[in-house]
Design brief:
With 211 residues, the chain is α/β, with parallel strands linked by helices. The protein has 10 helices and 8 strands. The chain has a single domain, classed as TIM Barrel.
Length: 211
């Protein structure tokens, strides 16, 4: 957990994934929030700007009741216009310093890293966290998973909170915890679950289990 946000159970609401599964976003998000999701990122790769903004405002309104912050994926301008808590930017998106200038000091800004070099570069910024991965194979990323011995080395060299992302399932959380991770990001494991409330409860138990 940073001073601004609890990243331990970080859910990505991916509009494309939900569309593919024919699942309304609210039917997925609300039970996840009720079960204890701590942060939510909205990802709308295929949406136009107007639709993305509309979605951001609707999701933000839903999150307000649960006091969970909204992070916007890739689009700093949507983050600013929607009044979201912040943005997550990839290596090919807007430079971190420009995003910080636009969003201000109080905004939450996360940055992606899929290599040791990218992680080192992220560590030199004043970002609020680094999204590191993929840690396992996933259809959402063409990049190969980062080997575990490298993950441990990267984690030991970063003084920012790190969120593991990519192919994370209920059964492999323990291995990531052993590597040093404390924060975990989920897309399909939550949004594709038959019983979302129970799935999030189980994930939370695995994450908080001291073993």
């Amino acid at each position: 957990m940073t001073g601004k946000i609890d990243l331990s159970l970080y859910m990505i609401v991916d509009c494309d994934f939900l569309s593919m599964k024919k699942r309304p976003w609210k039917s997925v998000l609300v039970p996840a929030l009720r079960a204890g999701v701590t942060a939510v990122q909205l990802r709308c790769k295929s949406c136009g700007k107007k639709e993305f903004l509309r979605m951001a405002l609707l999701v933000k309104r839903t999150l307000k009741k649960y006091r969970v912050p909204l992070i916007i994926n890739d689009n700093v301008f949507i983050a600013k216009r929607s009044g979201a808590a912040g943005a997550h930017i990839g290596t090919c998106d807007m430079p971190y310093m420009e995003a910080r200038r636009l969003l201000g000091r109080s905004a939450i800004i996360g940055v992606s890293a899929s290599t040791e070099a990218e992680a080192r570069a992220a560590g030199k910024t004043s970002a609020d966290y680094v999204g590191l991965g993929p840690v396992f194979r996933t259809p959402n990323k063409k990049t190969r998973p980062i080997p575990f011995h490298r993950l441990k080395k990267i984690l030991s060299g970063l003084n920012l909170p790190v969120v593991a992302i990519g192919g994370i399932k209920e059964y492999n959380i323990r291995a990531l915890k052993a590597a040093g991770f404390k924060n975990f990001c989920f897309i399909s494991e939550i949004s594709g679950a038959r019983n979302i409330f129970d799935k999030v409860k189980n994930l939370k138990e695995r994450i908080n289990d001291p073993a």
